[in-house]
Amino acid sequence: MHPRAAVPRRGGVVHIGEAMHELPVTRSILDIVLRHAAAHAVVEVRAIDLVVGALSDLEAEWLQLYFDHLSRGTVAEGARLRVRRSPLRFSCDACATPFTAGRDELEDARCPVCGSRDATIASGAGYRVDSMEAYG
User: Fold this and answer.
1) Closest CA to 90 of 118, 113, 115, 114
2) Residue whose C-alpha is closest to residue 76's, from 23, 30, 25, 128
3) Contact present, 96 and 4 (Cβ < 8 Å)
4) Cα gap 28→22, rounded to integer Å
5) Residues paired with 52 in a beta bridge
6) Which of 3, 66, 106, 126 could form a disulfide with 26 if both were Cys (CB 3.0 to 4.6 A apart)?
7) Cα–Cα dist 110/63, whole Å
């Protein structure tokens, strides 16, 4: 077993592995931002608006900490991530009715029209870059 390593965190120390899943997501977000910045001759990115689905366990604080580290020396250095949660939306497999449910309601979620428990997640599980505040 590996010894537990710790990384600095605002307000204390957290052990590696507790928030590591945000790292590859943050790399992806930065790649998207830098691609769009280069395509539009942006010299400074000040803010990035992210939409994160209700089913996602991504934490805004960790996303920002990793983004601050990864974006050093780029046009996105110092940019703030503004995270908004999107609701969890379903489509009933039996009658195609769209409906929403909270993350804490998943086990008991039923179609409000036909009562079926068979549904497909339509949105609210992933993340996306919605917009960015940038200067050219």
Assistant:
1) 118
2) 30
3) no
4) 10
5) 85, 127
6) 66
7) 33
Place of tokens 């195609």: 96
Phi, psi for 131 (deg, rounded to 5): -165, 170
What number is the average pLDDT over the span 36-61? 95
The secondary structure element, H or E, covering residue 39 is helix 22-39
114 φ, ψ to 5°?
-105, -10
Question: CB-side exposure of 20: number of CA atoms within 13 Å?
Answer: 7
Q: Cα–Cα distance between 31 and 53 in angstroms, integer?
A: 20
For residue range 71-125, what is the model confidence (pLDDT) as tens digits?
999 999 999 999 999 999 999 999 999 999 888 888 888 999 999 999 999 999 8
Please name each of the domains of the chain with its CATH number. 17-135 (3.30.2320.80)
